[in-house]
Amino acid sequence: MTPLIIDTDPGIDDAFAIALAAASPEVDLLAVTTVFGNVALSHTTANALRLLALCGRPDVPVAAGADRPLVHPTVHRASTVHGNDGLSGAADTLPAAAHDVDGRHAVELMADLLRQATEPVTIAPIGPLTNVALLLAVHPELKPKIGRIVAMGGGAKGGNTTAAAEFNVWSDPEAAHRVLAEEDVPTVLVPLDLTHRCAVDAAWLDRLAAGGAVAKGLSALTPSYRETYRRVLGVDGMVLHDAIALAEAISPGILRTTACPIEVDCSHGPGRGATIIDQRGYVESPRRLIDVAFEADTAELGEFVLSRILG
């Protein structure tokens, strides 16, 4: 089994990602760490605890991390998409937390787990990259313990929060620049370009609603999220951004990647938070390359996620 840490800001698509990891025998889910993002840190942490209770995983520690970006405060939340509590106003329909928050800061819990690890650990940041940037800055000696970072974020063709920027990167561009452009840990980036093409349809959601307790619990979170995608993208379904990244963390190679250099726009103009993904395909690049997932068998991917959640 691959040791796995999820860093997250739940979030409805985060909920599916956590459930997918909790049900996958290929990974040993070491911890779930939380960050500000879709909603405030207090909500993302409470949501992570409730989701692990839904999945029957009180063995997985939860630690709270950054409650704001590295440098500049951000007031925007995704509550118009995820609801005021991050779970469409339905967080209270989930089981109560079955365990308490770990007393350590998320960065220190990750550091402790990396020190103890006997094999490379995959870290899957599916919210703003603040906690992971702090981990790499404060504990650079632990970088060899990280097998891969598999992050959801960015977009080659534009964003979803602004015309240029995707939400996770826009929430903390300086952190994203450090993780994606400056560090040397092997990294896979799963951008909007792919996740939007992996939207699940009404039939998929009907199968989810007919499933067991975990599936039904997740299904109860989806109606307003689904309506958002009907209104914004014109699809009768929804996009599981973060679960697509977790599929790659669990099953390496399920997404097809291209090695590209990346820059993150940290200016204060209309391009702030944009990911500039260089796809010119030069044989040699003076800049660091990361693996960007642009292609996948979308039907296979949807079935992979659903079959795990249904058990």
TrEMBL record:
<protein>
    <submittedName>
        <fullName>Pyrimidine-specific ribonucleoside hydrolase</fullName>
        <ecNumber>3.2.-.-</ecNumber>
    </submittedName>
</protein>
<dbReference type="GO" id="GO:0005829">
    <property type="term" value="C:cytosol"/>
</dbReference>
<feature type="domain" description="Inosine/uridine-preferring nucleoside hydrolase">
    <location>
        <begin position="4"/>
        <end position="300"/>
    </location>
</feature>
<dbReference type="InterPro" id="IPR023186">
    <property type="entry name" value="IUNH"/>
</dbReference>
<dbReference type="GO" id="GO:0008477">
    <property type="term" value="F:purine nucleosidase activity"/>
</dbReference>
<keyword id="KW-0326">Glycosidase</keyword>
<dbReference type="InterPro" id="IPR036452">
    <property type="entry name" value="Ribo_hydro-like"/>
</dbReference>
<keyword id="KW-0378">Hydrolase</keyword>
<dbReference type="Pfam" id="PF01156">
    <property type="entry name" value="IU_nuc_hydro"/>
</dbReference>
<dbReference type="InterPro" id="IPR001910">
    <property type="entry name" value="Inosine/uridine_hydrolase_dom"/>
</dbReference>
<dbReference type="GO" id="GO:0006152">
    <property type="term" value="P:purine nucleoside catabolic process"/>
</dbReference>
